[in-house]
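User: Could you check the structure of this?
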Amino acid sequence: MIKEIVIIYWQDCSMHGNTSWTEKECKEFKLVDLISMGIIIRETDEYIVTGNDYCEEYNSYRNVVVYPKSGIKRIRRVKVRGKKNNANLSTSNNPL
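Assistant: Sure, the predicted structure tokens are below.
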């Protein structure tokens, strides 16, 4: 079975807790740039669902995350084959 691993470069909200902040301080807050990785489970025009762990024997995932494509800047993709198919790799550095 061929799976696709992705490295996702994306922006997310920043959270600053329940502390009081001055208006001047709040104006300095911005989105945070993140890098996340996972195995693609599903991809639509709106979002990408990934899992960090995959069990080939049970066809199951752990640590599942849904990323909105609206926040994604770039995706790097790597195709991998499971142990049943001799672990071969290929890479691409295509944007969305």
